[in-house]
Amino acid sequence: xxxGVSDQLEVGITVSDFxxxxxxxxFVNTRFCELTGYDSAECLGRNCRFLQxxxxxxxxxxxxxxxxxxxxxxxxxxxxYRKDGTKFELLLALCPIxxxxxxxYYVGLHVVLSESIGLARALADMELLLE
Length: 131
Hints:
disordered N terminus; 32% strand; 5-stranded antiparallel sheet; single chain; alpha+beta
């Protein structure tokens, strides 16, 4: 049911396994695949860093790393790269998920800023997911 709902949102959603070495992706929704040009099989098992490139903002990357090490939420504006090499800008929210007090997953909410995909709707969807 969650997978079906996640595919109806204008937000790319990822879930990474924080308990595993390298924090690999264990879930990506259809919208994330559409945004990046990668299919789910190409994403799963990899760290989301594979989307970064020469113009990815290092301050934003550092902020994400610090937040994840501290087990905190974070929101950054970041430039990433699609499978075809084109750059895109996004707003990325990272949200920790705990089980029994232990940090086990990070959920990433990805909203592309450089496309007219209905930014207001995407941000509303993101707010609903963060509640």
